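Hypothesis: this fold can be encoded by more than one sequence.
Test: take the structure tokens below, design a sequence, compare later.
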């Protein structure tokens, strides 16, 4: 399907949107003060070993130390052939505190967790991924033609040196052997430079930095289906023009400089980004999805909503689930949701309907550039899936926990706050009795105290022989309140 790429460059932020038929499919954001470290190679130093977790922390020059599990030391590039009775060696036998080593970031810091790092290094180009220290040869699974796979395998076998491996990327399909060899030579030169710098550098320090976002997108995302690349920044346009001329000349004609100051506004991308932050996702039929991102996983609930169908209940449920399966694939990419995802489809009785819904979900994931694994629909109508997470989600990137509810998503009701106030006054009975009591709270809480809770307030005042007064504090949230008791003409606050 034809796709367009929109690149918006501002003083403190670069955004790249991938659009198909007017719909935003993916959005990449990189900010000046928090540039991506994924793919960067560092010379680091082991600062702490955790034998009980088979893990270590490595200082590689960033604000927080990187986390590395023993599998990041032993497994190689995901091709380590383990026997059924294999046991990982103790990490303390592989590393010691103060040891220097080369590491690469595989996952950005997310929340309170530091970056995930590995000693299994790799360097990517347009057609290849270079694996120093490995002997693995891999072909992208998206290249399905067996003859083409064999051709690429033979090219790599002829050019492969000892103690190096390669993975052929999807873009290499139908590429000439000369272009692939040129890529391999470029990667070898880069690796030699990294090794030379590593020999001279003191840890912690960066040895290799991956391409900036616009060029990274050109390298990783541009395909034969890309029909237009819009850029709204002159310097970036020139850099991309040179990059395409050198590496992807066939797409040079797609590059266009946009004079529009609000490129994303003109193509309605800003509205789509804003909608991607919402919890609810409406479906065309009238149904909707509810997406909740938590620390452990993301849950997606499918609802029929206003959709009542045309035939019977089973058909209505099937059509809603089918539409939801297609929408979920896009939402996962657009929101960049990773980790464990639990999808709660509406319960279906017909087994063929279940297969069709699951097939639609799997088909939608085929266009996902990120690796996904999907299980069968359970008896409860749940589908468990995983999606590789290297970067934080769009929600984590653009939002922060609400300071009022502290990320709960809910506030205590005015009734609950009023009951808390009554309990607090009763705890202060010794100080309150016979004196004046001032309740300082938000407008909504004071309104309820004066109206619905008037009888309870009066009974409390009579029981404690006190006068209860109210004062609205505009700066208070609904959950905030103070109780001030007059003592010998002075005011003494009583905190909730």
């Amino acid at each position: 399907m034809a796709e367009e790429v929109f690149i918006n460059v501002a003083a403190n932020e670069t955004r790249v949107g991938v659009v198909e038929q007017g719909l935003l499919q993916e959005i990449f954001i990189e900010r000046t003060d928090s540039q991506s470290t994924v793919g960067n190679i560092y010379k680091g130093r082991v600062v702490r070993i955790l034998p009980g977790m088979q893990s270590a922390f490595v200082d590689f020059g960033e604000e927080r130390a990187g986390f590395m599990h023993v599998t990041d030391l032993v497994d190689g590039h995901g091709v380590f052939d383990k026997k059924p009775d294999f046991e990982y060696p103790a990490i303390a036998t592989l590393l010691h505190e103060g040891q220097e080593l080369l590491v690469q970031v595989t996952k950005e810091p997310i929340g309170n967790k530091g970056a995930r790092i590995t000693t299994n290094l790799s360097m990517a180009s347009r057609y290849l991924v270079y694996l120093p220290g490995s002997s693995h040869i891999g072909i992208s699974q998206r290249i399905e033609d067996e003859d083409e796979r064999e051709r690429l395998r033979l090219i790599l076998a002829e050019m492969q040196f000892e103690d190096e491996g390669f993975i052929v990327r999807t873009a290499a399909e139908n590429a000439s052997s000369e272009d692939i060899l040129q890529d391999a030579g470029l990667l070898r030169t880069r690796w030699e430079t990294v090794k030379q710098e590593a020999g001279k550098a003191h840890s912690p320090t960066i040895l290799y930095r991956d391409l900036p976002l616009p060029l990274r997108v050109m390298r990783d995302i541009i395909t034969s289906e890309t029909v237009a690349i819009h850029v709204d920044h002159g310097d970036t346009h020139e850099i991309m023009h040179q990059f395409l001329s050198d590496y992807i000349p066939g797409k040079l004609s797609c590059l266009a400089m946009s004079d529009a100051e609000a490129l994303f506004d003109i193509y309605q991308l800003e509205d789509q980004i804003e909608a991607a932050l919402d919890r609810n996702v409406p479906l065309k039929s009238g149904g909707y999805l509810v997406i909740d991102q938590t620390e452990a996983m993301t849950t997606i609930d499918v609802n029929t909503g206003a959709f009542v169908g045309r035939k019977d209940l089973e058909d209505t449920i099937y059509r809603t689930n089918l539409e939801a399966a297609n929408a979920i694939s896009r939402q996962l990419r657009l929101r960049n949701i990773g980790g464990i995802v639990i999808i709660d489809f509406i319960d279906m009785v017909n087994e063929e309907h279940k297969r069709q819904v699951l097939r639609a979900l799997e088909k939608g994931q085929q266009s996902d550039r990120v690796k996904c694994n999907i299980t069968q629909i359970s008896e409860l109508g749940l589908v468990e899936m995983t999606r590789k997470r290297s970067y934080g989600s769009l929600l984590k990137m653009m939002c922060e926990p609400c300071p009022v509810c502290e990320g709960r998503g809910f506030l205590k009701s005015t009734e609950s706050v009023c009951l808390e106030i009554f309990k607090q006054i009763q705890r202060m009975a010794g100080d309150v009795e016979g004196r004046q009591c001032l309740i300082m709270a938000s407008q909504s809480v004071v309104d309820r105290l004066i109206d619905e809770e008037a009888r309870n307030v009066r009974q409390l005042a009579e029981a404690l022989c006190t006068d209860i007064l109210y004062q609205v504090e505009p700066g208070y949230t609904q959950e905030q309140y103070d109780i001030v008791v007059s003592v010998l003409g002075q005011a003494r606050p009583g905190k909730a």
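The two ends are 59 Å apart (CA to CA). The first strand starts at residue 3 and ends at 9.
Hypothesis status: open.
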